[in-house]
Design goal:
about 65% helix, mainly alpha, about 210 residues, 9 helices, single chain
Length: about 210
């Protein structure tokens, strides 16, 4: 669930977590730039789920997110020489992922045989029976999650991307700006406008 009250602009989780026995992302990327395939495998394992989650929230289609996540790491390897070691890894990886997501959405909008609405997967899995005591609570939780998901899905892509990175990925406006190739002020504006658009739709759950 996204935190509509968050106002900080400093990133809370700039990189994926490394175990004590594994190098951090910056060290891994240096090794990847030297064509170290084991380092690339560690980096891909560490980032596969976060990348997939971000893409899925943007394109609203789980199977497409799977494919685009794989393509993200193909592009990362192909363009590893372009990474600037002086900059954080997370915005660079998610920038590749969101570029691919944006291109896929544009491609689907141009297809005359299938509407984007028909292609989008918006239905939640069926709720399992939690028993008489937890049933109402579980159902309300599912309804709230669906309402938030559908409201975010209704946003323009640029607003959706900024909000997802800020609320779900806990990134600073500066890092989001790097990811989206824009300015921190533009990011702040997109987040504010996204929240304004969501507020009436989520008033029931406030």
């Amino acid at each position: 669930m996204w935190d509509s009250t968050r106002t900080d602009t400093k990133g809370m989780a700039p990189e994926a977590d490394a175990t004590p026995t594994e190098p951090d992302d910056a060290e891994l990327m240096l090794r990847v730039q030297a064509s170290d395939e084991p380092a690339f495998a560690i980096l891909m394992h560490r980032w596969e789920r976060p990348v997939k989650a971000v893409i899925a929230r943007v394109v609203l289609n789980v199977s497409e997110a799977e494919e685009l996540a794989q393509e993200t790491f193909v592009r990362l390897w192909q363009h590893r020489g372009r990474f600037d070691p002086a900059k954080p890894v997370k915005p660079w990886i998610l920038g590749i992922a969101l570029n691919l997501a944006r291109n896929r959405l544009r491609w689907w909008r141009r297809r005359p045989t299938l509407s984007l609405d028909a292609w989008t997967e918006t239905n939640l899995p069926a709720v399992s029976d939690p028993g008489p005591e937890g049933g109402a609570i579980a159902l309300e939780r599912e309804e709230r999650a669906a309402a938030v998901r559908d409201a975010i899905a209704s946003l323009p892509v640029a607003f959706r991307e900024a909000l997802i990175l800020f609320e779900y990925e806990r990134m600073s406006c500066a890092d989001i700006a790097t990811t989206l190739a824009t300015t921190p002020k533009t990011v702040e504006n997109r987040i504010a406008r996204a929240r304004a658009a969501l507020r009436p739709r989520l008033q029931r759950w406030a």
